[in-house]
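> example.struct
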């Protein structure tokens, strides 16, 4: 195991998430209007976070991730007076609140995560795609298995306090999904306001603004980095095809069918694999 990682209750975490903090998550005092923005890494967290930040007159503060740092985190989170949207990559058992859960095709996540492992100094170094593919399949990566993560949210998918947003749907019809997010937050927007957000949160626009946005150290969305230069890579659906060998596709699909056979959420990916 690398020095940048440690295990907590059997799952791998970054050492930037202290054991003490992970142990105290139960004592976090949630407010009724808190919303958790939840995803497995590389599902599009920065994208949806940007949408929320751009809703006019929302009186919302996007806080740093709940699992980033040490035990002083809870005191820090108390200081936000406005309604809090709190990003996190934790799985369901740790967080019973209002939640926006982002899902993405796991093959694209694997490829995106591979590049993130390579570029991010807070993650162990990886030599080859093949090596990473094996780790991803076994769930031997930070935040554990993608399958277990999604399955932990599966049974709650119809709960009133959870909104599920998919990367692929967001690509296909951003305005419709931005409207869904606003409605879930109890906020109204005009069509022109929505169009503004579509533009501001497009991949190109977000990638071009990284230099400017990196200046604010409090603006951290993912507990694995505060450097936004590491986040915006390709922003596409289906890039997995350039990495998976036909054997890897077969092995992956077999495991997917086996693990996700009872999953309704997984049906969403049918069109993209
Ligand atoms: P790729 O590596 O496939 O390009 P997260 O924010 O959860 O870390 O996810 C990062 C992934 O979302 C990266 O995927 C990144 O390029 C993509 N992404 C970020 N902003 C995006 C946007 N506005 N539109 C589409 N994809 C975006």
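> example.seq
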């Amino acid at each position: 195991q690398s020095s940048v990682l440690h295990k907590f209750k059997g799952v791998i975490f970054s050492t930037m998430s202290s054991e003490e903090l992970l142990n105290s998550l139960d004592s976090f005092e949630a407010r009724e209007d808190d919303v958790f923005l939840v995803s497995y890494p590389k599902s599009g967290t920065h994208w949806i976070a940007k949408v929320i930040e751009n809703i006019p007159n929302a009186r919302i503060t996007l806080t740093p991730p709940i699992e980033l740092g040490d035990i002083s985190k809870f005191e820090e989170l108390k200081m936000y007076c406005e309604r809090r949207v709190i990003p996190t990559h934790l799985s369901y058992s740790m967080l019973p609140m209002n939640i926006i859960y982002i899902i993405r095709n796991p093959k694209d996540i694997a490829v995106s995560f591979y590049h993130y492992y390579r570029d991010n100094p807070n993650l162990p170094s990886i030599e080859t795609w093949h090596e990473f593919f094996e780790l991803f399949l076994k769930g031997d990566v930070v935040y554990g298995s993608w399958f277990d993560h999604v399955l932990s949210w599966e049974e709650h998918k119809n709960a009133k306090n959870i909104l599920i947003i998919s990367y692929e749907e967001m690509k296909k019809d951003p305005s419709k999904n931005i409207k869904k997010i606003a409605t879930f937050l109890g906020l109204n927007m005009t069509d022109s306001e929505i169009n503004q957000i579509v533009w501001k949160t497009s991949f190109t626009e977000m990638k071009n603004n990284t230099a400017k946005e990196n200046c604010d150290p409090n603006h951290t969305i993912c507990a694995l980095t505060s450097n936004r230069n590491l986040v915006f890579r390709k922003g596409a659906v289906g890039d997995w095809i350039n990495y998976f060998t036909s054997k890897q596709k077969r092995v992956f699909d077999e495991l997917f069918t086996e693990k996700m056979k009872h999953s309704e959420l997984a049906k969403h990916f049918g069109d993209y694999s």
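> remarks
Residues 106-119 form the longest helix (14 residues).
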